[in-house]
Queue: 4 jobs
Job 1
Amino acid sequence: LSGGRGLGTFKNGFKGGVHMLTEAGQAKDYAQSMLGEFLVTKQAPNGILCNRVFLEMYLSLLMDRDTQGPLLVGSPVGGTSIEDVAHDHPELIFTESIDIMEGITEEQCVRMATNLKLEGDSHAKAVVLMKNLYEMFVKSDCTQVEVNPLVQTMDGDVVVCDAKVNFDDNAEFR
């Protein structure tokens, strides 16, 4: 994956390496315009060959000022600015407030995996991933773990492709 994919242009003239689709039938047309083509971005001025197209999602854990505890945030639309998604399609942003004393629950992870539109093995793998991310979040004194994109592969795996992690500076003594 290349940073800036959403703003990139394929050498065949097709604009953008990240697209929000509203109908399943659109995926084939978009994929045909991307596969086998070179995507030119600021980070890859000579272009990167596109040999796979993924369903990209967004997932993050962060400290929420309102609840003074962790918040799980997810969207079935990833790979682009989550702020733009929140502005243009707020119905596609899902949150789960986590009780810091109880920790993340199975039910919260299942709901989020469902909201990400995952099914079957991918759904179960996403639940495990969320539990593991939360464990890392707490044990490493994180203030934010932002996964963008989170992707579902053709064989049903759920993979973190890129992440931003911030730590609590006040916990440095540990």
Job 2
Amino acid sequence: MSPNNPIFNVNNNLTILFNPWKTDSTWEFVVSCIAIAMLAVLHEILKFFQLKISEMCRCLDTHKCENKVENGCRRGNTNCLRCPWHWVQTVIHIVQVFLNFTLMMVFMTMNAWLCFSVLIGLGFGYLFFGWKPTSPRRQ
């Protein structure tokens, strides 16, 4: 099969992402599929934490309490670079983008089992971390 042929395959002897990550046996391939699914779950966990941190950090909230300091951030502060939570969000964002591209490259191997592992990992990650419950209505 030519490397440019866009057809899904089910081979279990392949190189995943880089040369040292080769699967020569079925056991290595199954472990690799589980590792890839865990990377996809980690991607959803990072999205969850990024949402939680954005709810916690109120650096850009200019509509309430202009001078109140909460969670290390001064509300109404237009310079969010001083907010420590913004820096944490930035690091999470960088890791999340790296995981996005890594999962995309795994999917581009066109191996049906690896693609299935990515989808299953993203699905389980969303199932456990991706939903956002509605807040109770204030009366």
Job 3
Amino acid sequence: WDQIQTNRFRMSLIMFPSHRAPFMAGTLEFPFVDHRMREMEKAVFGEAPSLRLSSWTPRCNVSETPTHIIVKAELPGVPKENVAIDLKDTMLTITGKHSEEKVQDGEQLHHVERSYGTFSRAFCLPAGVSPDNVEANFKNGVLEVRVAKPSPETPKSARIPLN
């Protein structure tokens, strides 16, 4: 019995890359799984955007220089007017809407891969960032938000007299 239990546990282990969580495996390592999940979602919930399990999520990069934190988001086809950037405390939030294109009279869609809908991405920044020190540029479908790093506070020291 001990040998059967041991083999059962050995066979149940699944190795995932250490830098990715198991629930995220569908995106890069197993694109077929991601595609099948989308098909099942469509079969169960239909095409109604309000019933979808997930909405469109733009790809983002976060980088750092000695003076700034830089967030770049790919927003192809999203007009500048449909994008909002908010900074509350240490949370930088990018929200917007990618509107679906109108189908021309007489045109029939046969295959659709492009995603539409609202999106929201949030990034936690270091304490002390100020909304006054944020710049945003939108060019060629790429949003770049540059947040100045807070200046490091010098620790205050004082000699405490003994009574």
Job 4
Amino acid sequence: HGGEGVVRETMFRRPLTLSVLTERRVYQPYGLKGGGAGSSGRNTLLVAADKREVDLGSKATAEVKPGDVFRLETPGGGGYGDPTVKFESGPPQAKRPKVFTPTGSVAMYKMTQESA
């Protein structure tokens, strides 16, 4: 099976223009090597004045008023591997380096600050 997404809600406290630009609202995220598809996402505007739920689709702009709520349901990730296969000691783990070595400008800045 695929994964589930996260639900986030934002209540507006003043009139604003809401712009939404998202993906995976129609087509579910695909799985790999026999894994199932993840759940689709959804964008909903809960209109406070008349208690309506408006499906905004994946890309939209809407005027919101105080008390309106924007609900963002993110898509879940696609599954990996045949879900009927059981592992005795859990799924195989990817080989990962045992030591984390920070690199890049942030790491260099930190080293400079710590050596002062």
